[in-house]
Amino acid sequence: MPAIDRSPQRRLSLAQARRLALQAQGFTARASVPVDRGHLRRLIERLGVLQIDSVNALARSHYLPLQARLGGYDATLLDEAAWGGNRHRALFEYWGHEASLMPLPLYPAMRWRMQRAREGHGIYKHLARFGESHRDLIGQVLRHVERDGAIRAGAITTREGAAGQWWDWSEEKTALEWLFAAGEVTVARRVGFERYYDLPERVLPRTVIEAPTPSPLEAHRTLLTRAASALGVATERDLRDYYRLAPQATRDALATLIEDTTLTPVGVEGWRETAFVAGNPRVPRRVESDALLSPFDSLIWYRERAERLFGFRYRLEFYIPAHRRVYGYYVMPFLHDGRLIARLDLRARRREGKLAVLAIHPEPDATIDDAAIFGLADTLDRLADWLGLEVWLACQSPLSRQLRSR
């Protein structure tokens, strides 16, 4: 293949790049009427993936990006789309950007990853080793699912005694996770946060099951195009991270997308690497949405991009000891007028009916004017109302005092 011209055909200021990213990520999507299934599905289709995580300081991570963009919505609409019956199911659960929910049309584009999992590639190493050494058990567990339908790991485990912390899985649970990675089972529903596994043909619509399987190259083209549309403007590493793709497969598919002009190279002020946009997007003049962002929000989950795009250095602190934390256990960046201007340590204290604001840290270079204070207060009120709580300013800081006196 001849060399592909990656020279930028257009230059964007950093402010323009931020506005393109915010528009692509749906921060202009807040509904002026009650949010219905259509609002929800259009936004998820736009994002292409919602990350799932077990941390539940406010709500599970997959619920929060929708609230940040749409405002208050009935969370059971997402449950219905993800784990409801065939009539309303619009999503499937698989490894996208980590554990994820993705729109059903992407299922065929993930079959190459399932195939690699069956072959012992592209999944966690302990699962690959387990697949080699426990083939009989994996077969037994699959036959159990085929015979009895949706099951949870706890119902078939033979381990005696309580499980330990983190990934202390029983052998039966590990077998189910291998089958899940390989596409032999999928998640039929969740009860609490526990998965129930069943055969894909009993869970997903027939149109999805019978859809043709694209080649790995075509699948990567689909995923990179989705990522480019969802990110607005993105470097090769940004695109690769969105669905956690391998470098060489990304480069091969990206070359074809540049060649056929699906993606266009652009330069961005201050970025060393060439970026790409889908088509010829129009840069909005302003994006005024205020939002508190989950640590697993797709706008900021790639920390290097968040720093490059917003000048915002962000690290998760709930996995480190309390005495080493700088900002707090569950820190949510505050988006205002196209910038990340503060970070808040928040916690849902449900027994007290409070959304506790434990700390507010303004960014060193941020302008916190009256409009920002009003936007933060309104954003906290909306989040608390959605959670069924009341805001409790449990910290003493200049910003909290300003919020109290608004």
Protein model, in words:
- The strands form four sheets. This protein has a five-stranded mixed sheet with strand order 10-11-12-13-14, with helices on one face. Strands 1-8-9-7 form a four-stranded mixed sheet. The protein has a three-stranded antiparallel sheet with strand order 2-4-3.
- It is an alpha+beta fold.
- It is 38% helix and 17% strand.
Fraction in beta strands: 15-25%
* Helix content estimate: 25-40%
Number of strands: 14
Any low-confidence stretches, pLDDT <50, length ≥5?
163-168
Order of helices and strands: EHHEHHEEHHHHEEHHHEHHEEEHEEEHEH
User: What separation lies between the terminal Cα atoms?
Assistant: 62 Å
Question: What's the overall geometry?
Answer: globular
Mean pLDDT: 92
Structural class: alpha+beta
Read across the widest sheet, the strand sequence of neighbours is 10-11-12-13-14
Tally of helical segments: 16
Q: What Rg do the Cα atoms give? A: 22 Å
Oligomer, anyone? single chain
Which sheet architecture does the biggest sheet show? 5 strands, mixed
Write the layout of secondary structure elements.
Layout: E1 11-12, H1 14-24, H2 37-47, E2 50-51, H3 64-70, H4 76-83, E3 91-96, E4 98-103, H5 111-118, H6 125-133, H7 135-148, H8 171-181, E5 186-191, E6 194-198, H9 200-203, H10 206-209, H11 216-231, E7 234-235, H12 236-242, H13 247-259, E8 263-268, E9 275-278, E10 291-292, H14 303-310, E11 331-336, E12 339-349, E13 354-362, H15 370-387, E14 390-393, H16 398-404
Parallel strand pairs: 1-8, 13-14
Antiparallel strand pairs: 2-4, 3-4, 5-6, 7-9, 8-9, 10-11, 11-12, 12-13
